[in-house]
Design brief:
The structure holds two protein chains of two kinds.
Chain A (H helix, E strand, L loop, with lengths): L3 E3 L4 E4 L4 E7 L6 E7 L6 E6 L3 E5 L2 E6 L4 E6 L8 E8 L8 E2 L3 E6 L1
Chain B lengths: L4 E3 L2 E4 L5 E6 L6 E8 L3 E9 L2 E5 L6 E5 L5 E5 L8 E8 L8 E2 L3 E5 L1
Parallel strand pairs in B: 2-11
Antiparallel strand pairs in B: 1-3, 3-8, 4-5, 4-9, 5-6, 7-8, 9-10, 9-11
Classes of the chains: A mainly beta, B mainly beta.
Chain lengths: ~110, ~110
């Protein structure tokens, strides 16, 4: 059973702080990793993808991947109240015939 | 360009009835995946279609079925509805199955009473 685990939160951070969201996965052959953001009452929206070990930065967002430890994280710098949402980690084995598996998400609350 | 369109947005059905949900992917996207989202279980994979063929099926009972048409539009059907089928059903499209940067539709909120 391929699993993706996230702390459900809520994770509360003050405005301007760094929010750190973590995700672990069970399938060692996983190759593709994604972070989706879902606002309340809305559908998920892709914000980051990462495929190689290390860091990938995009604006205020940094995704970090460590395949040896089977974890992927998302850092949000200078957190804003508009970042308050549920963040979903998604993983795929890239074996050509497996679906994208989602974690249950971490709810982030940025306090002004 | 137009996004992923799901219809209807909201649906209320009675136990035992059946329902059909529709998804029109982004133009040019040929891969469509369906997910069920509930507060307790999160996003759970239902099906994936590409070029009218089902490539993957999740761990759902046979009451859940789907198909894809030649224009890449997809439908899913749930027969003999149960209270536990109440959920948000999300459709996601991508150009090809190995591109997992999905674009999700707004979803269909199904309530079974």
């Amino acid at each position: 059973q391929k699993e993706v685990e996230q702390n459900s939160g809520p994770l509360s951070v003050p405005e301007g702080a760094i929010a750190s969201l973590n995700c672990t996965y069970s399938d060692r052959v996983s190759q593709s990793f994604f972070w989706y953001r879902q606002y309340s009452g809305k559908s998920p929206e892709l914000i980051m993808s990462i495929y190689s070990n290390g860091d990938k930065e995009d604006g205020r967002f940094t995704a970090q991947l460590n395949k040896a430890s089977q974890y992927v994280s998302l850092l949000i710098r200078d957190s804003q109240p508009s970042d308050s949402a549920t963040y979903l980690c998604a993983v795929n084995a890239n074996s050509g015939n497996t679906p994208l598996v989602f974690g249950k998400g971490t709810r982030l609350s940025v306090i002004a | 360009k137009a996004g992923v369109t799901q219809t209807p947005r909201y649906l209320i059905k009675t136990r035992g009835q059946q329902v059909t949900l529709s998804c029109s992917p982004i133009s040019g996207h040929r891969s469509v995946s369906w997910y069920q989202q509930t507060p307790g279980q999160g996003l759970q994979f239902l099906f994936e279609y590409f070029s009218e063929t089902q490539r993957n099926k999740g761990n759902f009972p046979g009451r859940f079925s789907g198909r894809q048409f030649s224009n890449s539009r997809s439908e899913m059907n749930v027969s003999t509805l149960e209270l536990g089928d109440s959920a948000l059903y999300l459709c996601a499209s991508s150009p090809v199955p190995t591109d997992y940067g999905y674009t999700f539709g707004s979803g269909t909120r199904l309530t079974v009473v």
